[in-house]
Specification:
The chain is of the alpha/beta class. It has one domain: Rossmann fold, CATH 3.40.50. It has helices at about 15-25, 50-60, 75-90, 110-140, 160-165, 170-190, 210-215, 225-240, 250-260, and strands at about 10, 30-35, 65-70, 95, 140-145, 195-200, 205, 225, 250. The chain has a seven-stranded parallel beta sheet with strand order 3-2-1-4-5-6-9, with helices on both faces. The chain has a two-stranded parallel ribbon with strand order 7-8. The protein is globular and about 50 Å long.
Length: about 280
């Protein structure tokens, strides 16, 4: 415990799912959290909100503040960084988790949706890194984790998989492939400044409450992982040695296995038992 004691962590997309899980796991290690999303209060459309994540963190003894921000808006991003730095004084760790996703056939992708996806998935992480890296470099250390996806990989075929033929992951994969290349390039540029930059994706689908509720998970159980695995992998990449663990495009479960890191429950106290609510066990 206390692996992140006194560290300030900014997490985007923290109202639910992976972002909320990372917040809970990091809070268990003593982090001070700046939670960012568009959803402040709970509503009926999807489970989760910033207020719920903040309450969960604070109730467990952690420390968190919520910041409502439309990350597609450059002015809002600037204000977000100004507010977080004014409140906390610094940001040690940046988790770029927020994402936009439209699974649509190529001919139905509008210019507006194209712009939203690239604004959210690549321009926002780029901008936040550009605004926060200078204060990391000044202190001589920092950690950035960009959450990616397996859809960034090129389709294999022919024949092509059911996922690539019917689920239309092309645009989402394009934007995340750009994020992967950005991550490795940034890692190289700031290697001498002791800043670790890594892109990390789940092996397949993550069983967030929203994905379970909307029945978006694949039928193959081995292609589904709990949010605990992503949270543990994000933690590893946020406490790693920037001189040896940087510039990676990696997958959560594979990363933890290769480094011999056990997955813990989100409270950090017990081992993760592999249970995923709403998903049948293997």
């Amino acid at each position: 415990m206390n692996k992140l004691n006194n560290r300030v962590v900014l997490i985007t997309g923290a109202s639910r799912g992976i972002g909320a899980a990372i917040a809970e796991r990091f809070a268990a290690e003593g982090a001070q959290l700046a939670l960012v999303a568009r959803t402040l209060e709970a509503h009926d459309h999807l489970p989760g909100s910033l207020k719920e994540t903040e309450a969960l963190v604070n109730a467990s003894g952690g420390s968190a503040r919520s910041y409502v921000c439309d990350l597609c808006d450059a002015n809002a991003r600037e204000q977000l960084v100004n507010d977080v730095l004014a409140d906390f004084g610094r940001v040690d760790i940046l988790i770029n988790n927020a994402a936009a996703n439209y699974f649509l056939p190529f001919e139905k992708i509008s210019s507006k949706r194209f712009d939203i996806m690239f604004d959210m998935n690549i321009r926002a992480p780029f901008d936040l890194c550009q605004r926060l890296i200078p204060q990391m470099a000044e202190r001589g250390e920092g950690w950035i984790v960009n959450i990616s996806t397996a859809s960034a990989q090129h389709p294999e075929g022919p024949p092509f998989s059911h996922h690539d033929l019917n689920n239309h992951p092309m645009l989402y994969g394009m934007s995340k492939a750009a994020l992967d290349r950005f991550s490795t390039g940034l890692a190289a540029e700031y290697f001498d400044r002791n800043i670790a930059v890594n892109a990390m994706a789940p092996v397949g689908a993550v069983a967030t409450p929203g994905a379970v509720a909307l029945k978006m998970l694949p039928p193959q159980r081995d292609m589904i992982e709990g949010v605990e695995v992503m949270a543990e992998a994000a933690l590893y990449l946020s406490i790693c040695d920037p001189k040896t663990v940087t510039g990676r495009v990696c997958y959560s479960g594979e990363l933890l296995k290769s480094e011999g890191v056990p997955v813990k429950a989100l409270d950090g106290k017990t081992a993760y038992d592999g249970f995923i609510e709403g998903v049948d066990p293997i």
